[in-house]
# Entry
Amino acid sequence: MFSVCTSFTSCLSLLLYLAFFWPHAAFSNSSSDPSIVESESRNVKESPPIRVVINELLYRREAAGKPEFVELFNMGDEPIRLEGWLLEDSETSSRLPGEAVIQPGGYLVFTDQKSFANKSELTFYLGSWPGFSNAGDAVVLRNPTGVTADSVRYSPEWTEPRAGPGVSLERKDPSALSHDPSNWAVSLHPNGSTPGEINTVFEVDRRGPTAVFARVQNNRIETIFSEFILITPNTRFSVNGRPVVLHEYQQAGADRVVLSHNPGSADTELIVRAENITDFQGNQTVSTELPVARKPAPGDLVFAEIMYHELPEDTLTGAAQSEYLEIANSSSFSVSLEGIYIRESTDSDGNYRYILLTDTRHKYLSPGEQAVIYPETGNIPYHLSRTGLYFGASETLNRRSLRAERMTLSLVNTGKELYLAESSGSILDFIHYDPAWHNPNIVDTRGISLERISLHNDSNHGDNWTSSSAELGGTPAEVNSVNQSRKIADAGSGRITLQPNPFSPDADGIDDILSIRYELDQPDYLLKVRIYDRYGRLIHKLADSFRAGYSGELQWDGYTAAGNQNRIGIYIVWVEAYHSANGSREVLKEAVVLARRLD
# Structure
């Protein structure tokens, strides 16, 4: 019996997989033992399909006396006795016990600690443990004939955030490539690992590869993909629509290509595109593109938001803010975030404290985009952090988030000097924030961030900062609520716009809600918004002391404050913008027609 591939892509995937990876399955970066390659090459046709795979690895023990372990998973339909099988690292090997039988769809765990092995019948103690290195190593599983069943050459750099002490690397898809870093992630389990259980990051790979990062390297463009890719005769690469030549593509890192294109000093944003690429699972991508990130120059990345006086945890809801910083790309090009960090002012001895960020690799900001810097210990992605949960962040914002391995950023309430720097030590931006920059009309600024008004004006000018007008008190990794590159209204010439007008709040899904959009000449106004009928009688109070910013929107559902339906007719929307600190005041009024459809 033999099987045939049913399409060009599946044939090519199989051939490239065998040619590319099988001879190097023991660990592709090490060929110190030629017999490894020779033995595996001789046994390619004789060996059964891979059914037992390395599924989880805890290589960095929590503390002395705590376990390391390797978890295996049986993808097959029959139980497999592992007697005579070998578990190896790059230097030593350990023979698996005869009583180790792995059931179909089941797990077995092997460890160097007896106490850990005694906790489960699925866990076996190995006296001669290979001893996997914290700096990266090979993990090899061989069957009794010496053929490699599976192998992984892991590296701490595989994942961001990196696996901390007592936190395992988990495989996402057992059937996907073992040595593709994208197929592994740190465990999300509260205990740091899931020995003998389904992995917390388990996900069947059904998506084609995408470009995730591109940068200039040695006058060429290096492009990183979300997973290992296959280069086929139909694969094409281009920059700004012009075809470019593939300069480098290596088997040891098939998620990376280098293109022979000299970007020079182009004054336009470079966009790299890859067409007709596929992964080793056969998932195809017709086209994927992204901007080429440049190294930031001073002023390209600037501080854009500061939450220094966060709200404490709510005893009823458990919700809590945390300090955070936001930076933004003020340039007209995409810029890299790799290697950036925060430092404080220099002391009398010329020393300074700094905040290292754990996960800047392969991250960038497009022009005008923002990134949030948040403190959290442990491998907590932004959308699950205190800040992310409080502000309802989506998982998509993780790309524009940078974690500091600490519980606080030490942002004092009285003001502080902060420097934004890149890996060479060059200062990108400097700020000495001041509580006096807050909207003077707000008495209690706890839980309200300082937001920058314009990315292009002075970082240390108080007039370029004010209190966030967002309902939750801030806009981390989002456009600032008071953002304004220019004034949208001259002094004393604010305006409101009502849409739709007429509107018909009859719950038919058409024109049911009145949108009240406003534009003002200053960001520090507080708003009062009232609805009156044509006789001047108060119908509804929509807002009191509402932090306005330069512009925004409120809505009216057409009902009274008591929830009663209003009659059809003309109503007056009355908006008062006032600034109690300097005494300025502006009143805006517009009429709206409340109507209903006739049957």
